[in-house]
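Q: How would the structure tokens look for this protein?
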Amino acid sequence: MFHVPCDGTYKHHLQGICTDETSIYWSFTTTLVKTDMDGTVLKKTPVVNHHGDLCHHDGKLFVAVNLGKFNDPQGNADSWVYVYDATSLEELSRHETQEVFHGAGGIAVRDGHFFVVGGLPDGVDENYVYEYDGEFTFLRKHIINSGHTLMGIQTATFAHDRWWFGCYGNPTTLIVTDADFTMQGRYPVNCSLGIEGMTGGRLLVGSGHCDKDHGCDGIATVAIPDQTSGFLLRNGAAP
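A: Here is the predicted structure in token form.
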């Protein structure tokens, strides 16, 4: 399993992926999809606009959701985390994360705590990560001295002792930090549609495109961390 297309096309674009290495979970903005590791759909369910990046923990899916204005300088977002059963995709609970001032867009888990990322207006030269405990009590805001990235951070994962953050832009940007959010590298590669840690030193990177006549697709590709380029796709090509 190096390159996995998700079966089907969807109305809105891919926002994130995660995996328990038995299944892959895909967030297509208004549809959550569960596939096997070959991309065959096992379950899917419609969800409210806008479901963003997601993570898997303890048999559940945690999805960053914004119901307000994303990237608004005045903070008119409405940030939440929605929780789903990873087996059935049944919604289990919702948690407010209103501290995510410019709109929740991505989420990752580390040591039972959840880390939510999101929008960033023009003119701000640092990114923010909002930490919550396992009950979604807000703990603290972390600052990444990353320079500006277009609309902030879209995807996040903690893997191989580092944080990996996917950002939009021209070029798209990968930010890598250490465990304490100190910058380790900024790379012109694309994981803005999904990045996830895997066993064996691997990453899983999301990609996809939209066609106005046919909808949006999603692909998950195995990658290997690389100090020079950020990561290399498993076929040896740069992303």
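Residues 3-233 form a domain with the Neuraminidase fold (CATH 2.120.10.80).

The first strand starts at residue 3 and ends at 5.

Upvote if useful.
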